[in-house]
Design a protein that fits this description.
2 domains; eight-stranded parallel beta barrel; 14 strands; binds D-mannose
Length: about 400
């Protein structure tokens, strides 16, 4: 009755190989055609080719099954014109619908995507030193303000923050070396792997400017327009969409953010009631807000839970956080996994829905041998291996204790 254990793989150039993933014990692969420009159609041929690489071991003759399946696409990115509600959006939506049909044809059941404007997930430090010598990702609000107010010089940015924090950011900024400034800029706008494209400072400011008249409520309308256009096609294709929350779950650069709370989630699920219009429970993203009741969200919106990212964070008390060990920190992982297992039990008894919901250990610390290797931020092998091992142990413990 366990969750389906999956693992994010960035494709043939990922330093973590499919064979490594087999050893980690995952059976599902989370992958995307990162090489396809945002907005273009994902063709059946390209999808089939990648599926073959994942699911077949072609190093032997005849080829045999690899033991892995491509279970989730993360992500098919949404073109900015759709997010901006531009007149030309229908053309991009049509492409998205085509991609969904093709995904259905090759039989990949789930797509994770997001509706964050301009930037995808955002961190200020990709190398935070932990007490034990490992490295973690963090979001420090003072570093973020240093970038927004003093490097980017966004108009009126300082009004978005507590004056004390702006002062601290000013003090930090004058002490930073050119290298440190370049690293901070790169961390924030050069694009983390799997995220949106990267920007220069000028291109970034220009992009932000396009959103100046779009508040949360206008932005919600743009999401609703998109959902109403694509969900019927997803249903028809047998594909379940799983919207990823804003990471971090609050506004950045004065941009609208509309997938940060349970109320946000409820709004978008209600736009079109269908199992194809579902969500990703990312405990690391929603969990940054103390007012999000993660286990409760799983329970109350269980039938729309299509994908799960499990990790934890520790809030720093001034708006930032760092990524903690998977089982410790501010996320009640026991409560969340218990709620997921209850939902799976419910599906099993009612005979509706996917019983083994795909889950992946999200991010991981850089540990042991990985400290000397080139790794994708958040996606090193050993930290995730540890996370997955701990999570499956907790899951097994809950199952065997008979409380579900
Ligand atoms: C980061 C990821 C995100 C996620 C997208 C989904 O580690 O969780 O980049 O893939 O936001 O569209």
């Amino acid at each position: 009755m366990g969750m389906q254990q999956t693992w994010r793989w960035y494709g043939p150039n990922d330093p973590v190989s499919l064979k490594d993933i087999r050893q980690a014990g995952a059976t599902g692969i989370v992958n995307a055609l990162h090489e396809v420009p945002i907005g273009d159609v994902w063709t059946v041929e390209a999808l089939e080719e990648r599926k073959n690489i994942i699911e077949w071991d072609n190093s032997v003759s005849p080829a045999k099954k690899s033991g892995l399946i491509w279970s989730v696409i993360e992500s098919i990115p949404v073109h900015e014109d759709i997010k901006l509600g531009k007149p030309g959006r229908d053309k991009w939506i049509e492409n998205y619908r085509e991609s969904l049909k093709n995904v259905g044809k090759v039989g990949i059941p789930t797509i994770c995507y997001n509706f964050m404007p301009v930037v995808d997930w955002t961190r200020t430090n990709l190398n935070m030193l932990l007490d034990n010598g490992g490295r973690a990702l963090s979001f420090d609000i003072v570093e973020f303000i240093a970038f927004d107010v003093f490097m980017l010089n966004r108009d009126g940015a300082e009004k978005d923050y507590d004056p004390d924090l702006v002062e601290k950011a000013g003090e930090l900024f004058v002490k930073m070396t050119d290298d440190e400034k370049a690293t901070l800029q790169k961390n924030i706008i050069a694009g983390l792997p799997g995220g949106q494209e990267g920007y220069t400072l000028d291109a970034f400011l220009a992009r932000l400017n396009e959103y100046k008249d779009i508040d949360d409520s206008k932005y919600r309308e743009n999401l609703a327009y998109f959902l109403k256009a694509i969900i019927p096609v997803a249903e028809e294709a047998g594909v379940k969409m799983a919207i990823h929350p804003d990471d971090p779950p609050f506004s950045l650069f004065g941009l609208p953010r509309i997938v940060s709370t349970e109320a946000d989630l409820k709004y978008l699920l209600d736009v079109y009631d269908s199992v194809s219009n579902g969500y990703t429970m990312c405990t690391g993203s929603y969990g940054v807000r103390a007012d999000n009741d993660l286990a409760g969200m799983v329970t109350r919106h269980g039938s729309k839970l299509n994908f799960i990212h499990l990790r934890s964070t520790i809030r720093d008390g001034r708006g930032g956080f760092f990524e903690a060990d998977h089982l410790y920190g501010d996320v009640d992982m026991y409560g969340v996994i218990s709620a997921i297992l209850k939902e799976q039990k419910k599906r099993e008894l009612s005979g509706t829905g996917e019983i083994h919901i795909p889950m992946r250990p999200d991010h991981g610390h850089v540990l042991l041998d990985d400290l000397g290797k080139k790794t994708n931020p958040g996606y090193s092998a050993i930290g995730r291996l540890k996370g997955l091992a701990e999570l499956r142990g907790l899951e097994l413990g809950i199952e065997k204790s008979g409380v579900i």
